[in-house]
UniProtKB/TrEMBL annotation:
Residues annotated as transmembrane: none
Assigned keywords, A-Z: Signal
Region forming the signal peptide: 1-23
The keyword Hydrolase belongs to this UniProt entry's keyword annotation: no
Pfam name, any one: CAP59_mtransfer
Protein name: Alpha-1,3-mannosyltransferase CMT1
Keyword Signal: yes
Length: 446
């Protein structure tokens, strides 16, 4: 028996030594696929300063730097010393270290798909954000799925290394899950976004029992460090539940045009417009043009800082709308909007309806849009409608630090429904839909 036991132990030992294994990787099944999950080997106690770690992290990321330099180098190169002094003072309260008492904790969520082109800039800017907020006080969750470019390799070989050097906990899930033919587009996108939030709920349970104070959800965008810090600053200042920038595309070759008007709604419930001179037609239009934060009904627009309480305490998740609307029966079904639109709706329904757009933060998804967006302003073009675009590093106006007096929700909001021929939905592509009522007034929740 002893010989048999020793033989079995020997075989087990040989198998353990032979099998492909890394303390960095795990696998878990998801929707019939086996996903690669990257996590830190272990969080290290380090005596190195955050500044030293950031320097080493940026050095690790520099292997991806294009020969022409980072696209987002204008975040700092083209700004004045006066702006740098203003920004340093403005964002100093957000700076944290290991010794910060009762630190604010941040959960960063990202969905990535074929983003090889923007990842060098994203890694470079996000590393600086994490260092500012305190690397140990942040968690980064990335769900990548179905990429056919170098995105998985860049996440595996570079992004994870940068986070390791910073000593930031993370989970990077590399999935082969793809949208199956015939699958509902919004249901699929909701599932993908929920995957990026999956560690949020797991970490809230024992043995970690860790809850985060803010969620920062990033689309695959080009942004500056100060863009993220400004949204976090405004979320804290305004006591808002959602705080977003604005995203843009191009029209007529070089004219920036507001992008995601499927989701964005002003506080009257109106959609934003794809109009280069006036994307907003309500009372918020003047605030938008002057770059002053304003209240909205719904936002997403590339980057969203969110209150996590609706997720933790009310079971809010990304979802698709109810399938059936019968125009002959009142109050049935639901407009089949974007998963982000429905998230706003559910935030309001659970009593968390303080939504803010921050016009200073303007982001893009592609290089050509980013370059054009950051080069347009009235002083350069002479066009009056370019007054809405301020130069990178424009000095802060006093009004940008004024608190918003929040208004109740509109009685209804303009909804554009996603149509799928296999699913019964409204006969109209766009309709006015009643906004959700909640017995708890979000303006009284603090």
């Amino acid at each position: 028996m002893k010989r048999i036991a020793l033989l079995l132990l020997s075989c087990l030992g040989i198998w353990l030594l032979w099998r492909p294994w890394s303390a960095h990787d795990e696998t878990s099944p998801l929707a019939g696929f086996r996903d690669k999950v990257l996590k830190p080997k272990r969080l290290q106690s380090t005596l190195a300063s955050v500044e030293d770690r950031l320097e080493r992290a940026l050095d690790a990321a520099s292997q991806l730097e294009p020969k022409s330099g980072y696209l987002t180098r204008d975040c700092f190169e083209s700004v004045s010393q006066e702006y740098l002094i203003q920004a340093q003072s403005r964002y100093l309260p957000l700076r944290q270290s290991l010794s910060t008492p009762s630190p604010v904790t941040y959960y960063f969520a990202l969905n990535l798909y074929n983003n090889e082109a923007i990842l060098p800039d994203m890694i470079h800017q996000l590393a600086q954000v994490l260092a500012h907020l305190g690397p140990e006080h942040c968690f980064v969750s990335i769900f990548e799925n179905g990429s056919t470019d170098e995105t998985p390799n860049l996440l595996r070989n570079v992004f994870s290394s940068v986070l390791d050097v910073l000593n930031t906990p993370y989970e990077i899930r590399l999935s082969k899950t793809e949208r199956t033919p015939g699958a509902h587009r919004i249901a699929y996108l909701a599932q993908v976004r929920n995957q990026a939030l999956a560690p949020l709920y797991r970490l809230a349970k024992p043995p970690t029992s860790r809850r985060f104070d803010q969620i920062v959800f990033l689309n695959d965008i080009l942004f500056c460090k100060d863009d993220v810090l400004e949204l976090i600053y405004q979320q804290s200042l305004q006591g808002s539940d959602m705080t977003c920038g604005l995203d843009y595309d191009l029209q007529w070759g070089d004219v920036p045009l507001f992008y995601d008007n499927w989701v964005a709604r002003d506080i009257t419930g109106l959609s934003f417009y794809k109009d280069p001179s006036a994307p907003i037609r309500s009372a918020s239009a003047d605030l938008y043009t002057r770059g002053i934060p304003f209240q909205s009904y719904c936002c997403w627009n590339g980057m969203n800082v969110m209150n996590p309480k609706p997720f933790y305490e009310h079971g809010v998740r990304f979802r698709k709308g109810q399938d059936t609307i019968d125009p002959n029966i009142p109050d049935t079904g639901e407009c089949g909007a974007s998963e982000c639109s429905l998230l706003c709706k559910d935030f309001w329904h659970t009593g968390y309806g303080k939504v803010v757009h921050v016009p200073r933060v303007k982001v893009a998804y592609e290089e050509r849009v980013y370059v054009t967006l950051h080069s347009r302003n009235e002083a350069r073009t002479g066009q009056a409608f370019d007054r809405q675009f301020r130069p990178q590093g424009a000095l802060f106006l006093p009004e940008e630090s004024q608190k918003i007096t929040f208004q109740p929700p509109p009685p209804e909001q303009y909804c554009m429904s996603y149509h799928d021929p296999k699913i019964r939905e409204s006969v109209f592509f766009a309709t006015w839909e009643d906004t959700p009522f909640h017995e708890l007034d979000p303006l009284e929740l603090g």
